[in-house]
Amino acid sequence: MAEDLVVTDQLVIPAVELRERFSRSSGPGGQGVNTADSRVELTLDLRRSPSIPDPLRSRMLARLGNRLVDGELTIAASEHRSQLANRRAARERLAQLLREAAAPPPPRRRPTKATRGSKERRIAAKKRRGEVKRNRSRPAE
Fold this sequence. Notes:
alpha+beta, 6 strands
């Protein structure tokens, strides 16, 4: 399964930049749980990857900073019982994470003023509420 990881149309991570490590998965699994190395750790060296353009790399490093260890991003998958399914899950999760980190920032909000009508409605609502409270505290005659 040494195929390139397609993140977006413009961003493809070559398979040689990805490292996979296999280990035993925890949890139920029957007789094979103690012998099958079905847990997958997929690692990408984000800081030194030549396939990621510099402006995109700096954005990704900033957004994924808390998940990186020495510039490397590691995804672990052990939810499936088969190694192949865990490899697919790890690759999909890595692609989704990189896609979200590479997304352009949202446009900045243009500050606007409250309209005259909205101010008047707010003041009228406050007056009505005050009237309700004032009527509550009057002694019954």
